[in-house]
Structures are given as C-alpha cells and as structure tokens.
Amino acid sequence: MQLDDLKVLVAKHIGARKKIVLRTCMSAGCMSSQADVIKKNLEAEVKAQGLEADVEVRRVGCMGFCGQGPLIGVDGLSAKEKLFEFVKPTDAPAIVGSLKGAACDVQVGNPDHPFFARQMRIVRANGGIVDPERIEDYLAVGGYQALHQVLTEMKPSEVVDEITRSGLRGRGGAGFPTGLKWGTVAKSAGAKKYVVCNGDEGDPGAFMDRSVLESDPHIVLEGMAIAAYAVGADQGFLYVRAEYPLAISRLQTAIKQAKALGLLGGGIFESPFNFNIDIRIGAGAFVCGEETALMASVEGKRGTPRPRPPFPAESGLWGCPTLINNVETFANITAIIQRGGAWYAGIGTEKSKGTKVFALTGKIKNNGLIEVPMGIPLRQIVEEMGGGAPDGGHIKSVQTGGPSGGCIPAAYLDTPVDYESLTQLGSIMGSGGMVVMDDTTNMVEIAKFYMEFCMEESCGKCIPCRAGTAQMFHLLEKITQRRGTARDLAKLEELCDMVRHTSLCGLGQTAPNPVASTLKFFRSEYEALLQPDPFGPRTTAATQSTAPVTL
Questions:
Q1: Which of 118, 248, 280, 358 is the most buried (most CB within 10 A)?
Q2: Residues 509-533: what's their mean pLDDT?
C-alpha cells in the first residue's frame, strides 16, 4: 500500500466523524472501575435520546489523570474540552443530557489544571485521543508517515544520525545514548539481526509503558519498524509481561491491522524492506527487565542474566546482533523523524534531552501519568502538578527509579529531574516510577519493602545478590522490630557496598539504593529503633588499632 492509499482511507475515516465525541477512557485503571459498562450505557443513552447522528462514543486510552477516573472527555460541544471525573455507569443519562443543555451534577474537571498545563506530550501525544483498537485513528493523526519518510527519503545511516542528533537516551533506566546503540548494531556484522522492545515493566508503582501499549500501540510498532530499517533487521519481538492482558490484546490487534494494510510484513510501502513483529509474553520475573535475561526468556530459556561483554549489539538473540530498547524509547522515534533531531535536542537539559513520562503515585493529591520536559524541578512536579500531600500533610520524600532507585528528601525538591542530578542524590531516573511519601511514612519500613521485593525477585544466579539481599532484608526486619544494634547498622552498610559492587546484573547492583539513600538522609529513623549493643561498638578492620601488642 502506498501513502496515497492511506490518505484516501484517512479522508474517508475523518469524513465519517460526528460533531460531538464522548471520549471514554478504556485503560486498565478505568476499566477496573466499570469503564466498559459506562461506554455501553453512553452508547445506549445516545441512541435513546436520538443523538446518534451527531454524537460518537469513542473508546480511548489513558488520559493521565488516573486518580480522578473513570474519565469522559467531551469534544465538539464548545471551543474548550470538557472533562467529566469519577464517572459511574448511572451517570450516562445526565452526561448525554448535558449535550442538549440539561443540568448535570457529574463532577467536571479543569482542563487548565496544573496537572495538565505543565505537561509536554510527545510520547503520550495520542493518549486519550485515538481509539487504540482502530488503526484509522492512528493514521488520522499522522501515523506511519514517519516510516514512509525513512523508507522513501532516508538511508539507514541517516536515520541513525538523526536519532543521534536528537540526544535521546534509553528510557528503560540506564540512560544509554540511543543513537550510539543503534549505530553499533547497524555496524555489527551478521546476516540476521533483531529488534526487541522491552515491555517488561515491573517496578512497584510504575505503569507508564503499560499505558502507552494500551493507549497507542501503533506508535511503538512504528518506532520498532523505523529502528529495524536503521539497523538492518527484519524480525522484531515485543516482550510484555503476562500481567498486562489488555496491553497484549491491543498489541495483537494492532499488529494484525498493520499487516493487513501492508505496514508490517513483506514489502512495506512497496519497498524492499520487510519487518515482522511477534509478541513474547513474560511470566512476570522482575529480572527479565534486564536485557540479557530478557533475551534468554525470548529464546525459551530460564530468564537469568549473563556477563557482558559480549553486549547484545554484537551477540544477542541466538548469537545475532540485537537492538533492545524499551517502550518509551521507541515511542519517541516517530516524533524525532517527523520534526527532526535538532527539535528534540532543544527540549530538556544539556545531557538529558526530550521529555520523560512518570507514574506519579503515593501520598499525593493528584496521581496519574505525566509527561514533562527533562530538567523540570522535582518540586514543580510534586507540589504544583501533584498538588502536594493530601489531608494537610507534608511531603517527606520522593522515591524515583523503583526498587533500584533512592529516596530523595523534601529538602532537595528543587533538584532538576535529569539523569545526572538524580544520580548525585543516590537515586536514578529508572523507567519512570515516582512514589511520593508524606510525614507519616516510616522510611526504614520503605527500605525494607523494596529490599524484600529485590530479595524475592533475585534470580539466584550470583551469590552477592541471592544471599546479600536476603541478609540485608533480615537486618532491616530486625531493626524494624527494635531488636537491632549499632553493629547491625554497620553490617547493613557493609552489605550495601558489597552487593552493589559484586552482583552480576543491574538488579543486584542497584538493590541497595533505597537502603543507602534512606541511611544517608534519614539515618535518625534507623538509630531511633536501635537497642544498646551489649558488646559495645563493633570493631572493624578500619577501626582496629595498629599499636603493637604488649604481652
């Protein structure tokens, strides 16, 4: 299929649209609160009130303001969007009646709320707007035009150069330069190459990638196809955990639709380029978010990491050069191709370009998904967009980076959100979880929670992670039960250092971060739980006297 054929399809689709659109959020969060029933009731009510000719009830993905859901957006009724919040199935008659001017007591949100106004949406530009199960909606907002552009106007090396120029860094957590990774795979020798999308999002409190896959699956497929053209691959794998059934279902639908229109498969846009994507469903092992463990799982083996080098770019799936990026990284690609690497590089900071999607959760008034420019102060996210702590509380700490991240105290809320600044505070960007804690939170319990998670999710392949996380958890448990002493605290710090520097993969190497950061910034909370040491201070090699012993 050629671009002109798609334009005809899009024109027909747009021509069939109705004057008023009721955008019904059908993401997993709203679905858990009967959004599917709400949509059916709205459709029935539109018919009952004789508005079928003018009103469309559209299924859309996540609108972002998850704490206010289920959400219904209304377009076409006035110049400004209307947003109904906390919608119940019984609200359908009132919402549809309001389209004709009737009174409506359903809570209406403010589209100019700082939660929305402070955002800059690139990855989530289509979220809450397009129907994720209709490829025509994606095509109508410019979908697959970037893929057509690279296939007809650009050489593979030019695509790599554009991504390099953008300064995009991997959004999976490590922040490795995307263009450099693509260039390495492109230059690697091999008759067969693969592209892998890491959708194994496992951080507690994180749901950014799930939302993108549920709300706009085609943006990820198109990004993968562009990457495949750039590096010379003809096969892709999308690795998604089984706990995301809605995302998997919509990806399967999207792949079928793209193949039916010749946008995936053989001879895409009647060019020599062939690219297929298969879905691989993970069993929910947190360690499979690590790229070598993920590849082992795709190959049908036990998901355990292996030492590097060789890196996947040289020897990945079945020993072939393999490009691995996460969902959000691929979702940035189409905008970079269409608007240019220089445009993207103009957003963010000197070393952290573009935007970042965060799942803002925890003890915060306004929770949900946000997309903000890199370098935005943490305070602006937490206090302005998030509205601060609920019930008159005060922010105590913000944890970024999931189990691999650290807890940042309120005194550092003016820190810019970028890779380097978060690392300096003992935390990481991670994939985008951002958990807010108020002054009722016990930071030692938080450290214990994350350490228990890492202990249970350790694959057990290397002793430092397998045994070290268990020992750290037991020490934290002992301290929270007020049975710990200063010796235990010293031993905990030693274990943090040992596990960080001797573990095989990123799970173990970063597992101590929540403990180390809370020890650094909230040490008094640990010390308040300690018992007097009956044996006195612990003697270590560093504190032993070097004076000669007198016999």
A1: 358
A2: 93
